[in-house]
Design goal:
The structure holds two protein chains of two kinds. Chain A is α+β, with helices and mostly antiparallel strands. Chain A has a single domain, classed as Dynein light chain 2a, cytoplasmic (Beta-Lactamase), CATH 3.30.450. In chain A, α1 runs antiparallel to α3. The longest helix of chain A has 24 residues. The radius of gyration of chain A is 17 Å and the shape is globular. By secondary structure, chain B is of the alpha/beta class. Chain B has five helices and nine strands, in the order ββαβββαβαβαβαβ. In chain B, strands 1, 2, 3, 4, 5, 6, 7 and 8 form an eight-stranded mixed beta sheet that branches. Chain B is globular. The chains are: A alpha+beta, B alpha/beta. Chains A and B meet through β1, α1, β3, α2 and α4 of A and β1, β2, β4, β5 and α2 of B. β3 of chain A pairs parallel with β9 of chain B, so a sheet runs across the interface.
Chain lengths: 157, 223
Amino acid sequence: MNQMPIMTIQAAERLLNALEDFLEKAEADYAMIIDRGGMILSQQGELPDNADPDIVAALSAGSFAATRELALRVGESDCAALYQQGTNSHILISAVDDDVVLITIFGRQTTVGLVKFYSAKAIKRIGAVLQELRTTKHVGVLFTKEDISAAENLFAR
Amino acid sequence: MSIINYANKEIQFKIVYYGPALCGKTTNLAHIHNQVDDTNKGELVSLATAADRTLFFDFLPLNAVTIKGFKTKFQLYTVPGQVIYNATRQLVLRSVDGVVFVADSQWDKMEENVESFKNLQDNLARQGTNLDSVPYVLQYNKRDMPNVAPVHYLEYLLNNRTRRANSFVAVATNGQGVFTTLNAISRLLLQKFAREAEETVTKHQRPAPTPNTALSGIAANRR
């Protein structure tokens, strides 16, 4: 499993730039990069109907993982992309690598072909940033057991 | 796998509630969702059958306490407990940081509890990990039912590994033990995170750097 525990400010900026560039060229509405567990790594644009990005990420990760498994079970070696065609909004979920997925939401102003074309370029840029993150040693934020103990109520009720 | 984001100043963890069918996993999440402040939770999403049996997963994003300027976020998932959905359980377990194993305390559910616990271990092994690496706690739910096994018996069945896990009794339908369990697993994850960060610093033999504050004003979400 590829390890990528730390998103540095510089990497976050590079990912945002990659997504911004992709959205502009593909004329898509929203793009999100998530890991296979459903965690959001970066996002750019406007989600339709003010959808919750955490939920979009979790559902997308689950959908893609399930479809990928299905593809393997029917003899396909991999599933590179999953396309959901809607009435007003469409969703393209594309694999960046084994651990990361790019989600694109777009409307009638563009086409799935254009989105796929530019997503290929975006995926290369994103993949390069992530590979660098994985191979560079980073020191994480430090907090101690005392900091954790000092937090009496972890969840506000 | 927990993710630290210096741009958003967030640390995210994934917790999966695991256990046999109808043991109370979804009930745990429903209670948590009802109790947590609106500002600190997202929507509870349940992918279920018409009979309200979990089909794929339940999902609940929670914001927790801020520590040293970093927001801690926990994403809670449940797995479907029915035996036929094992492939789905494997998918939900991906990148898991911590597990809450919910056992049904009733006598006639013991075999299912044991099978489910073994299934958890098998599915973690498929991902190249195990319960020695993934923090977990045990919840003995349904303690209000008339035909429940004593806690020490559940401990004997499910908590007899070399390192024993923290365990909690619960009645998830009325909330008893639900937050005690959640707080316990969350603290375990934070402590593990703190320990690993400290080990990394020691390994590098230098103090933790201050993130580039000149860039800290960059919004991570330019929406």
